[in-house]
User: Fold this.
Amino acid sequence: MYPEPLKPLSRAFFARSPRRVARDLLGKVLVRPSKIPNSADLTGRVVEVEAYLGERDPAAHAAAGHTRRNSVLFGPPGYAYVYFIYGNHYCLNVSCEREGRAGGVLFRALEPLSGLEEMAASRGVELRSEKDLLKLTRGPGRLCEAFSITRNRDNGSDLTSSSGNLWIGDDEHRAGRILVTPRIGITKAADKSLRYLLSGNRFVSGPKLLSRV
DNA sequence: ATATCGATTATCT
DNA sequence: GATAATCGATATG
Assistant:
């Protein structure tokens, strides 16, 4: 299934700028141990992320300063920041930088690898054709629903521990060509190019990249 | 194919 | 009271 066994990423991996963490997260694997006995863990390869820079980034939740909601972003690196948005969806980030300095990376899309049936059940979709795979983890709200990620369960959990119930692994997969574009779904600082994605991967969210005139 | 809009709630002004 | 790091449904070319 994987080129190499999955090894959790180190704390030091996340103790860097969100830009570098975001770029290096492409190709890594998000892991949710299955809650159903004897069934496959939920795993997906990271194919699209966005960097959020901290208090000086108007689009970042940290821009408002330290609040109860965003406190994970100001804590140590490698922890899950999960928030609820539009009354409907959760989004998953991982904290970066160091304690006291906010920064994070938003997971925008995964390529599902294992546990697809359980993901489909959580998403309420039927897997009839190849195209249905795109409904599982393409988009930040969708991937959270597929992995049953909620604020109550997952906000503040350590993503560097393979004994935790959500973590990020490295199987030494080589990421392909990386594209950098402006972030999407935001209104502030929408011009900054802080979205990183694997070129040509069909699980990347958003409109297809066309040559703009 | 792209465009617009409603859902539904935590958070902040 | 307004807004939001979204999604899915509906409308229209």
Summary: Residues 168 and 183 of chain A are 23 Å apart (CA to CA).
